[in-house]
Each structure stands twice: as C-alpha cells, then as structure tokens.
Amino acid sequence: INKKGVRLKAKRQKKMAEHIRVLLTEEEVDKRIQEIGEQISKDYAGKQVHLVCVLKGGSFFMCELAKRITVPVSSYGSDTKSSGVVKIVKDLDESLKDKEVIVVEDIVDSGRTLSYLLEMLKDRGPASLRLCTLLDKPERRVIDVHVDYTGFNIPDEFVVGYGLDYDQRYRNLPYIGVVEFD
Ligand code: IMP
Ligand code: MG
Q: How many angstroms separate the alpha carbon of residue 10 from the centre of ligand 1?
C-alpha cells in the first residue's frame, strides 16, 4: 500500500468509529418489563402460559419477562432468518396443541418475521396465541401484525442492547441504545 492508500484506510477507519446513544435506560426497560409481567400474570390467572422465544434476540427479554410472571411458565425457542423471505432455522421441539402461547420477540420492524411465524404457529392448534414484543417500530411496518403486549414504541432508528445486535455485537447491553457513527 502506498502512502496515500494508508492514509485513506486510516481515514476510512476513523469514519467508521461508532458509539451508542442511550435511548431507554436499564431502569426504564426493567420497570416496563415488570409491568408487562404483571399484566400477563393477571391476564393468564389460573392458567399455565407457554412462552415461545424468537431466537436469538428475544431470549434476553424472555428471561427477564419470565422471572416477573407469577403464573406457571414453560418456554421454548424458535429461530428465524429474515431478509425479505422468512425461514425457520430452528423449529420448536414441543407441541403447542391446546396451550396458551405467547410469542416473545425483541423487536417488530417490517412485521415479516412475526406475521409468518404467527401464521405458522396458529396451524398447530394452540388454545390461544398472543404476541409480546419489547420494542416496536410502527413506522417501518410492511405487513400488518397484531401486537398484544408492547414494551415501547420507538422511532425508526437502528437499536441495540437487550438482545438486539449490530453484527452480533451489543446484545449484552442492559439498556437500549442507538448505534451512531462519528
Ligand atoms: P421484521 O421481520 O422486519 O419485523 O424483523 C424483525 C427482526 O429484525 C428482529 O427480530 C431483529 O432481529 C431485526 N431488527 C429489526 N430492527 C432492528 C434494530 O433496530 N436493531 C437490531 N435488530 C433489528
Ligand atoms: Mg429477532
């Protein structure tokens, strides 16, 4: 690489520097999850609720939510890939027949993943099927999806933390942040 090339590369790397702007603090998120947990416990009083987590992002939210639900809980995981076409890469191991099912997702964006997943799970004969998402970007919706429990409606910005990743990073942040490039 010549002198000029090296300089250009350094400049490009500098441009790529990123930082996280806090959108929702850990306290705000925890408080809201507590509220949703209480609401679900009330709505499903006397029943057993079955949480279906949309991997991988949904698992962080599901763990926190499950801890705050006071009715009996069982949980499953299902993994999807979405890039216009949704694909199930890891299906559930258990039957949903006659169960009270809540699908737990980190974020609803275009709605493609969830509309596909909910249609698919409906065919398995659950007693009921609801959707709980930590975050929703309603502006981005391409396919209509009915959300039963929403943590927060957020603007159209790319967020990370609480299970949400940017290139597999930042999932572990205990708050929700926006990736910004300097
Ligand atoms: P949808 O099918 O467009 O609704 O896509 C939902 C999926 O896209 C989520 O489960 C996330 O994995 C991913 N996603 C959408 N928006 C964001 C974001 O702001 N940050 C990180 N992942 C996102
Ligand atoms: Mg997801």
A: 31
Closest listed residue to residue 117, CA positions, set 139, 89, 154:
89
SS3 143: coil
Query: Which of 54, 159, 164 has most ligand 1 atoms within 8 Å of its beta carbon, as the pocket-test mutant?
Result: 164
Most confidently predicted of 70-74, 81-85, 147-151? 147-151
pLDDT band at residue 123 under the 50/70/90 scheme: very high
Q: Tokens 């999932």, residue? A: 171
Residues forming the active site: 109
Query: Residue 117: left if φ>0, alpha if ψ -120 to 50, beta else—which one?
Result: alpha
